[in-house]
Design goal:
Strand content: under 5%
Largest sheet: 3 strands, mixed
Distance between the termini: 32 Å
Structural class: mainly alpha
Shape: globular
Low-confidence stretches: 1-51, 612-626
Radius of gyration: 25 Å
Strand order of the largest sheet: 1-2-3
Mean pLDDT: 80
Helix content: 55-70%
Number of strands: 5
Number of helices: 22
Order of helices and strands: EHEEHHHHHHHHEEHHHHHHHHHHHHH
């Protein structure tokens, strides 16, 4: 595409400034070739073409705004942190900005090529591939015992509540950013940044965890000890001293397949998922034949708190569903396909997870389960070595699809975050041939590979789970804001009422979670906190009117289901223990430092450079659903 700037009457030396401005505007436009107009030495008009390829490393592709043009400019920007923070703290995006302006910064669009069939199999591959095979043995042995079945049911219910919220947002804001875009529109830039940072943390840690488990199941397939394919590094601390180069290789290969094209990756996923589905049927049938109900006793060896602690961890196994929401920008009919894909798949997967966990715990006593490759070793212990290897092969296929779909979704989260300039702008670029965000895929894969090389599965699971639950809680809160707040109404009293009610609701839910997680507060704490949550929800239901009704599909029983989602996610967060919150706190502190030093100023510059919206074509995919 060729774009000419206005002719500039200036000395020849100003051509350098024009060229610099054109490169800086690259992040706000989508042009691969630009014409820079100027005046030659004799006064004649000249034109210089600046041609830019996909693989480039200009400073402007990392820090395109004027705040980063020089150290002096950056110093001035840092000095203005206070005023900029006040401006950006609650600055809210719009659906038009997320759907029509930000995608222009990718230079090439993501291709709409996915159908309901594709989404259903992508959801299956992402969730099942990274779930039941990874954590069931670990949590049954360490936290819940046979009651891990209840843990899966509780986590599945919480995930289904979140899926309802995601489905409504994905229909109305079909953006590649998923929850990041939803929060930017409803809660503002700062909340969206916290979500973005946790989404990236989830992407890195989640992919690394699945890749580590991939190595364990490969060892089981070969009839070897789960750690036999890893390299011991005695100089490193426990939990980080088993190096896993095979996990790194699995990540790289799956990400390479995802980068070749969305349609190709989708076909690879559903073919592999068919095999994974056949293995699940085999596990349920053959495992039932080898089941011993006596292995279910004792059912609650670690008590109710262990069950809920396990629920907080196994919730990670349901998190693939949010990847389906990130594919909305590449879905042919998101309004029809995404609600069916999200809610239908989550309901079916919850039932499958509970059934598989029950069969596993009846096949082998919980205290003898292998924490890394539980299903394969349980069949081997039952005298079915060949079945154990079949299960290991099926699990490998399932985890491979989990890595594949994860690479697709994580790269799209990263792309939208980069489009908003919260991370370097060059990561938003979409490759002109493949139609995929190759730069973002490389970033996520590289980070996950480093983590997978060093970190053990139990360390990864708790970090990923708490980040995921935090983002899901914010998404449910954003849905309530979307339903009950009318933008531009100018009624400050109404805003204050809504803020007070939401504060009561969230505070009450957090209080119940804190009482449970700390073991303090007694019945009085539960009663007061529970009454606050119930009162806030009832106030939304009977006192404050809804300002917006979804036109295509919406969450039923608002505000009760979103409020339950907030409470469930906070409760599961509190069940993860102090160590998970410590890691979460450290990560959040690092994120805030980055925001104040980099993201705040980059997003400020980006907001100054947003062009006016061109008129949308009636009935186009870019038109917001009111």
């Amino acid at each position: 595409m060729l774009v000419s700037s206005a002719s500039i009457s200036s000395p020849a030396s100003d051509q350098r400034s024009s060229r610099e401005k054109a490169r800086k505007k690259l992040a706000f436009g989508g042009e691969m070739e630009r014409a820079i107009m100027g005046r030659g030495g004799a006064g004649e008009e000249t034109e210089e073409r600046v041609r830019v390829g996909y693989w480039r490393w200009h400073k402007e592709d990392f820090f395109p705004g004027p705040s980063f043009s020089s150290w002096r400019s950056y110093g001035a920007a840092v000095a203005a942190t206070g005023s900029r923070l006040r401006c950006r703290l609650l600055r809210r995006s719009t659906s038009e900005e997320e759907l029509r302006l930000l995608p222009q910064r990718s230079e090439h669009g993501l291709r709409r090529c996915l159908t309901a069939w594709d989404l259903a199999w992508l959801g299956f591959g992402a969730v099942v591939g990274s779930g039941i095979f990874v954590l069931t043995g670990l949590e049954a042995r360490q936290d819940a015992g046979p009651a891990v079945v209840i843990s899966y049911a509780a986590a599945g219910g919480a995930a289904l509540l979140s899926a309802f919220c995601y489905a409504e947002f994905a229909v109305e804001i079909p953006s590649a950013g998923g929850s990041f875009s939803y929060l930017r529109v409803e809660l503002g830039d700062f909340a969206a940044f916290l979500a973005a940072a946790n989404l990236l943390l989830e992407a890195l840690v989640g992919a690394a965890g699945v890749a580590r488990s991939w190595t364990s199941y490969l060892a089981a397939l070969l009839g070897r000890d789960p750690d036999s394919l890893r390299i011991l590094a005695p100089v490193l601390a426990d939990g980080y001293n088993l190096l896993d180069p095979i996990a790194v290789a699995a990540l790289v290969l799956c990400s390479a397949a995802a980068a070749t094209g969305t349609r190709i990756a989708s076909r690879l996923n559903w073919i592999a998922s068919l095999a994974g589905g056949a293995v699940i049927v085999f596990i349920l049938v053959a495992g039932s034949l080898k089941a011993t109900p006596a292995n279910l006793s004792p059912f609650l060896p670690f008590g109710p708190q262990g069950v809920l602690r396990a629920a907080g961890v196994v919730f990670w196994s349901y998190t693939g569903f949010d990847m389906v929401a990130t594919m909305a920008e590449e879905t042919e009919n998101p309004a029809r396909d995404i609600p069916l894909g999200l809610i239908g798949s989550m309901s079916a997967i919850t039932i499958v997870y509970c059934a598989m966990a029950l069969v596993l715990c009846m096949m082998q006593s919980y205290d003898r389960l292998d924490p890394d490759a539980a299903f394969a070793t349980a069949f081997a212990a039952a005298g079915m070595d060949w079945a154990g290897r079949l299960v290991a092969l099926g699990a490998l296929k399932g985890m491979t699809t989990g890595l594949l779909v994860g690479a697709l979704g994580q790269a799209r989260y990263t792309t939208q975050i980069s489009r908003a300039h919260m991370i370097p702008a060059g990561l938003a670029l979409v490759h002109p041939r493949t139609g995929t965000p190759v730069h973002a895929t490389i970033l996520v894969t590289s980070g996950a590979a480093v983590i997978a090389l060093f970190s053990s599965l139990d360390v990864l699971a708790s970090v990923s789970a708490i980040s995921t639950l935090f983002v899901f809680m914010l998404t449910a809160l954003a849905l309530l804001v979307r339903r009950y707040h009318e933008r531009g109404s100018g009624h400050s009293a109404g805003r204050l009422k809504l803020a007070a009610v939401l504060g009561l609701l969230v505070g009450g839910a957090a209080g119940v979670a804190a009482c449970w997680g700390s073991g303090r507060g007694g019945w009085a704490g539960y009663a007061v906190s529970g009454a606050a949550w119930l009162g806030g929800t009832a106030a939304l239901a009977f006192w404050l009117p809804q300002k917006r009704a979804p036109k295509v599909w919406g969450v039923p029983l608002v505000p009760w289901l979103p409020s339950l989602s907030i409470a469930a996610n906070l409760f599961l967060m509190a069940s993860l223990g102090a160590a998970a919150f410590l890691r979460f706190g450290v990560c959040t502190a690092v994120m805030l430092v980055y925001y104040l030093l980099v993201a705040l100023h980059a997003t400020h510059d980006a907001a100054q450079g947003l062009p006016d919206l061109p008129p949308a074509k009636p009935g186009s995919a870019d038109t917001e659903i009111p």
